[in-house]
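Q: I'm writing up a methods section and want to include an example of the input and output format. Could you take the sequence below and give the corresponding predicted structure tokens, formatted cleanly so I can copy it straight into the document?
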Amino acid sequence: MTGVGITPPGATSSTLITPVGLQQGVFPDSGSTFCYLPAFIFNPLLAYFPNPVAMGGGLYTVDCSLRLEAGTIDFMFGNTTIHVSYYEFLWFDGVQCWFAAQAVTNTYLLGGSYFLSWTI
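A: Here is the clean output for your methods example:
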């Protein structure tokens, strides 16, 4: 992965949240609901979502109304950017909405049932 950005609701372009020149290995894993990211990517990404609630174990819930906002999380791979909508990235378990990423210190992966809905 060469970058991660975010296009907040109302913005017309992505804001890069990772260092220029990033070369981060990640595994795509459609069998995992969440993304597992290094803290230097996870922390600034989470900061774009107001009032996250720590649920323990590095997991956060967010206001479900954010799923209806027109923002995207933007994963960059060379000249290709995959835009994942807030609706797809904020996982609804039937009760609450989870920020579908977690900071980890090893094996990084991009998970989620939203793989099929990615737009390039």
